[in-house]
Amino acid sequence: xxxxxxxxxxxxxxxxxxxxxxxxxxxxxxxxxxxxxxxxxxxxxxxxxxxxxxxxxxxxxxxxxxxxxxxxxxxxxxxxxxxxxxxxxxxxxxxxxxxxxxxxxxxxxxxxxxxx
Length: 116
Prior knowledge:
Strand content: 25-35%
Oligomer: single chain
Helix content: 40-55%
Distance between the termini: 82 Å
Number of helices: 3
Largest sheet: 4 strands, antiparallel
């Protein structure tokens, strides 16, 4: 009886593992990243995405620091850049930004001026 329970538990673990693996593989199909920049460059030109030099300038202007690594990825919504940045203090940060308009400027809320 105990042996059957162990077999059943082992079978459940195996099935759970298969479900996790299939979910990871499904997630990989939804997102594709270009590791080869000769291919990524073609994608950037074809889809009129921001070039890496524009991206670098935008990161500095936004006060995020220098780009150390760039990866172009495609997901359901479109293209995005996955970045590793180094700030002014030498710390590294990860950032994901849209590839068409990197680091968009946030609109500030209008303040109402009340007279007291």
